[in-house]
Amino acid sequence: MSSFFTVRAIDFKGFLEILSQTTYNKKGEVTPYHSIYLFTKQTDFGDEVGASTFLFGASYNLSVAGSTGIPVDGVLSQPWCMPSAARQELIAMLTSWIREDKEALVKVHISDHGASSATLVDSEDRRVNFLMHDAEDWPVDEAYNLLTGQAAKDEKQNKDGLDIPTGKRLKVSHDILKTLATVAKRTEGAISFLPVSHMASVVLVECGDWRGAFLPEEYAPDTDVNSPEVDLIDPRDDSEGASEQTDTGVAADDSVEGEE
User: Fold this and answer.
1) Cα dihedral value 75, 80, 81, 82, nearest 10
2) Which of 110, 105, 166, 117 is nearest to 133 (CA)?
3) How many Cα atoms are found within 13 Å in the side-chain-facing hemisphere of 101?
4) How far does the chain reach from its first CA to its final CA, in angstroms?
5) Cα atoms in the Cβ-side hemisphere of radius 13 Å centred on 59
6) How far apart are CA 42 and CA 84, in angstroms?
7) In this predicted model, what pLDDT tens digit does every residue of 58-70 receive, in sequence order?
8) Is the CB of residue 185 less than 8 Å from the CB of residue 43?
9) What angle do CA 149, 79, 53 make, to 5 degrees?
């Protein structure tokens, strides 16, 4: 059964761009993780008042999962996956249409076999064709167990089987921070961090209407999980080190010979 829905071009573009941040993008491979998982549902969501039909999407790059939704007119007959090639073609065309008219509407058609098109409403000759994939192989349980926090653990061990302590410390990789910073920039919002259980287990994150989750970095079993481990030398503290050597090798409280 074919599917149709109509959506604001600017909403659809933003939706695809933010979900692209958490797709797997390693070149030379083609996996379900490269795609965005799409489905529609009538529900309450975000700032919309009352139940409406929303297009929801999710993506997962094996480190961070993300999900968001936008209002649409119409429904999908089944979940679909949008691969990276289709996403790039759509974003390029949507950008062009929005440049001409920020209020532009787009009608999306998906056939039974995934052959799809996005057409500019009131301009049937303005169309981009693309291919959607069946969603059967997309890791729904893996991604949504992370997004809901169900994958969180109360206890964690390292590869040697030693218990990893938990406390205030949260260790986040550069790649994850970069992804979250991009999401925050696109949504123009602040990010909320919500550790579910163990601080080296699942952390839920929110930014605007985007919901995400990630797996923090593990730390060594002997790590101080409640205090910083990097020394901080406070210039206001005169209790110690007043006469320690400076970078020039001259004692901080000694005058240079010959100076008045």
Assistant:
1) -40
2) 110
3) 10
4) 93
5) 25
6) 27
7) 999 999 999 999 9
8) no
9) 85
pLDDT in tens, 38-57: 999 999 898 766 679 999 99
Write the DSSP symbol of residue 231: -
Q: Show the tokens assigned to 135.
A: 């969603």
Beta bridge partners of 139: none
28, 86, 220 from 24: Cα distances, Å: 11, 15, 28
What number of other Cβ atoms are within 10 A of residue 220's Cβ? 9
Average pLDDT, the chain: 90
User: Residue 193: in which H helix or E strand, if any?
Assistant: strand 192-195
- Phi, psi for 44 (deg, rounded to 5): -90, 140
Give the 3-state secondary structure percentages of the chain, helix then strand then coil, rounded to 5. 20, 30, 50
Question: What pairing do the DSSP bridges indicate for beta strands 3-8 and 73-75?
Answer: antiparallel
Centroid of chain to Cα 93? 23
Measured at the alpha carbon of residue 14, what is the angle toward residues 148 and 8, in degrees to the nearest 5?
110
Residue in this structure with the two tokens 């929110």, named with its chain if needed: 206
Q: What is the pTM of this model?
A: 0.86
